[in-house]
Amino acid sequence: MKNKTEAIALSKARADLYRFLGNLYIMEVDIEQLDSLKKMSFPEVSGDDDADMDLKDGYALMKKYIDNMTEDDIDDLAADFAKIFLAAGDATGRAAFPYESVYVDKRHQVGGSTEMQMKALYLERGWEPDPNTYRTMYDNIGLILEYMGIICDEIADAYENDDEAKAKELLNEQKKFVKKHITNWVYSFTADVTKYAERDFYKGVALVTNGFIKKDTEFLKEGEKAWGIE
């Protein structure tokens, strides 16, 4: 990392994107969030590797959908959310259920030891998800991404306090966490999101998730050059 300022900025940017994506998986887009999305400047991606293309295509799908969306379309997008993540309206009960346990459990059951592992990690860090905001299981993808955001905040604080050793310790913790609780299932999950989504918005969210996780995984393995920082 070139300098302290750059390290802090990157940590905060990573936290913001983890939380942005996590929130989109936790709850439907409401009118307030729609207004924020319409004002958002979607990043321009210039690279051409797989991760860059996922980010580029994903942001394009999200932006086009949001630009053409009105408040009258809120219910339609909410219905798509319910269909994708809750199997609403699908007699077969098939969906992209947003829980790690569904994808890693041999019987594809929700909860169990996987959820308890996540709960233990949250409590160990002294973080209890607000039940009014996160009305879901502990291994929901939204909570898992929020957890990564929390650690990114801690990394930024470590750099603020000139504690590079602590920052490196936290980055190593993230590296292990991503391998154990994200990349072991998230790409299968986002493939299902794309499969069940009827509207391009959530197809875009899935692609951005893919691209970001790929980029961030490389960052945690190789350092700043994975984000184009030399």
What is the succession of H and E elements?
HHHHHHHHHH
Q: What is the end-to-end distance?
A: 8 Å
How much helical structure, as a percent, in the residues?
Answer: 55-70%
Report the C-alpha radius of gyration, rounded. 18 Å
Strand content: under 5%
What's the number of extended β-strand segments?
0
Biggest beta sheet summary: none
Q: What's the number of helices?
A: 10
List the uncertain runs.
none
The oligomeric status of these chains comes to single chain
| SS-derived structural category | mainly alpha
Q: What's the rounded overall pLDDT mean?
A: 91
Shape: globular
Textual characterization of the structure:
The protein has 230 residues and is mainly α. It is built from 10 helices and no strands. It has helices spanning 4-26, 31-39, 50-67, 74-86, 100-104, 112-124, 141-160, 164-181, 186-196, 200-222. The longest helix has 23 residues, at 4-26. The model has no long low-confidence stretch (mean pLDDT 91).
Concise overview:
With 230 residues, the chain is mostly helical.
Essential attributes:
230 residues, globular, 10 helices, mainly alpha
How is the secondary structure organized here?
Layout: H1 4-26, H2 31-39, H3 50-67, H4 74-86, H5 100-104, H6 112-124, H7 141-160, H8 164-181, H9 186-196, H10 200-222
